[in-house]
Amino acid sequence: MSEAFAARAAALDTGDELADLRKLFTLDDGVYLDGNSLGALPRHVPARMQEVLTREWGELRIRSWDESGWWTAPERIGDRIAPLVGAAAGQIVVGDSTSVNVFKAVVAASRLAPEGRDEILVDATTFPTDGYMAESAARMTGHRLVPVALGDVSTAVGPRTAVALLNHVDFRTGRLHDLPGLTATVQAAGGLAVWDLCHSAGALPVGLDEHGVDLAVGCTYKYLNGGPGSPAYLYVAERHQAAFDSPLPGWTSHADPFAMDPGYAPADGSVRGRVGTPDILSMLALEAALDVWDGVTVDAVRAKSLALTDFFLECVGAYAPEGVVVPVTPQAHAERGSQVSLRCLDAGVTEPVMRALIARGVVGDLRRPDVLRFGFTPLYVGFADVERAARVLGEVLSEVSGRALDGVLGEV
User: What angle is formed at CA 263 by the lines to CA 257 and CA 265, rounded to 5 degrees?
Assistant: First the structure.
């Protein structure tokens, strides 16, 4: 059986139009399936950072704000991210963390909403920071926070809905939610839709402009490979920019920041989303990392992502012993992101299983109490990686289900 799957993997890799991109990344002989938490390092980034450190900072110093383009980096890099999420130029600014941008987006959206609306809807299963920020935004604005399952949004929205904070892909299960449909539902009720794109940008088409999204946020260290702690981004649709009222009006979003005016006057366009001094080192590492996208289409990435996850699910079905794990990621392509999550029917083995996988060269991660997560970054993950990961997983699960776990871990 393994020979047949290995042969199929080899054939699929041979026909993969994105296969050559793998050499652009720093990878070892293992299988890295955690790009949905931290993307791999593009090989050319260290050389670019050496240039930033030695010349732009070391030699030019303060002159680099102008001569090296540091000051305009947040908008310039935002324009590079824009095609990856289906946005026209001038609507994305890079900077701050995802958490900070969620707060800015939710508060600003509540201020954009029609008068009398006092409810903030939030995905009940959202990544914790989104929930924390939405709760803080509700306290700040005097609104009521309404947690809701995304399947119930159509019945939860109404005349009191100011904004809905929604996740494009669920971080635990990998479920892809209906961005066009949910956006239309929220807007039809008179509210604004704010989307968290952390687990979708760089893995699948988003279509922010096409689907009329109001505001969106996302990180850059997952499928965009920007590096640990790389700055996040904020999308504000052009139609909202003139009225966008940030709860964090920092000096770099001022219309004339160097006037040092004690009165705040917001800049035009996406610059309004800025707060403080840009984190130049992380930002320029991100900018360099985005070079791997030159000539790559999101549609091609999505096609490979679906093929990889289909193949992984098939291999897991063949290799894993029955009754040990079950997929919680949807089978339907329209409902699947670029990860596969497997629930361990015995929650107590989840962490030991992942430790054993990592010890054998297959890196994924887990979400307690019982979910094994595997992220598939099409720019550098191949089909041979998929077959190997599923085979090793099957071996570990067979050993776990067949004898004492302590004995298994003692052998790895």
Answer: 60
Q: Is 127 a catalytic residue?
A: yes
Cα 399 from Cα 308, distance rounded (Å): 26
Assess whether 336 carries a catalytic annotation: no
pLDDT in tens, 285-322: 999 999 999 999 999 999 999 999 999 999 999 999 99
Catalytic residue among 80, 104, 222, 272: 222
The residue from 25, 32, 127, 376 that is catalytic is 127
DSSP of 233-252? EEEE-HHHHTT---SS--GG
Query: Which is catalytic among the residues 22, 175, 373, 391?
Result: 373
Confidence of residue 404 (pLDDT cuts 50, 70, 90): very low
Strand, coil or helix: what is 343? strand
Q: Tell me if residue 221 is catalytic.
A: yes
What integer pLDDT is reported at residue 92 of this predicted model?
98
pLDDT of 96 reads 98
- The active-site residue, picked from 196, 214, 370, 385, is 196
Q: How far apart are CA 99 and CA 117, in angstroms?
A: 24
Q: Is 16 labeled as catalytic in the residue annotation? A: no
Sign of CA dihedral 156, 157, 159, 162: positive
pLDDT of residue 1: 75
373 counts as catalytic? yes
Q: How far apart are CA 220 and CA 228, in angstroms?
A: 9
